[in-house]
Input
Amino acid sequence: MTTITSFLAAYDGVLAAKWPAGTHSSRVPTSYGITHINSCGPENAPPLVLLAGGGSTSTVWYAQAARLGRTHRVHAVDLIGDPGRSVAGERPIRTVEDLMAWLDAVLDGLDIDRGVLCGHSYGAWIALHYALHAPPHRVRKLILLDPTQCFAGFRPGYLLHALPMLLRPGAERTRAFLEWETGGAALDPAWLQLRYAAACFPSVRPVTGPRPAPEALGRLDVPTLILLAEAGRAHDPARVAAAAARLLPHAQTATIPGATHHTLPLHEPTAGELNRRMEDFLMTR
Output
């Protein structure tokens, strides 16, 4: 099979095997291309939008989808330009403003006027920027899972280990990096096959930028839950927690024992604790 065919077969395999029965896929047109979304849960339930980390695809949320889908209509989004089933259009996403306009269009296409936004890693960076960008009513709550470049920078050692994978993407380099960061954790084989295939998927350079300004964070009037990986190597979780507590007026933070940056949100032993904390936060007024 070709690289793209292998990737799509692995993607569909994870969706069929790991996501709950009745999961529905849809495509939302935007001026930046067609956005692919996997949804589950009661159609009339409050909406919860999930943004994955870079290269993970929307399927990575399988360990949360069924449980969160009991009380919410879950929408997991494939980022345009990242590996997944979204299709980039002629207009590229080049700036943070483009990202915000794209997510505006996605929420409009899903008829979400007010909902919960949850992101992991790079997806958390996008979610936080969107909460700062959106009208006050649109983001009801915000969940950030081990957010990168939001409250603290990367550890130099993490960037050093990631560099070979970034310079010359490939399955073997991705495998070595994930084994290092997760401490050799036993990740789901079907998802790993997809993640290795994603390393060879044609993608564009992600939009990055500075951390949100402290004064902007101080004005954010959105209840926020920040869940950090105790054993994560991407950044110092204690430093992230301290900065978030100092900068965000409506934030609560917690650390998931034994988790690393890349075992959130898909590692079964930590997913239960993650689910519990997310559910508790979602159900409080």
Remarks:
- The chain has a mean pLDDT of 94.
- The two ends are 50 Å apart (CA to CA).
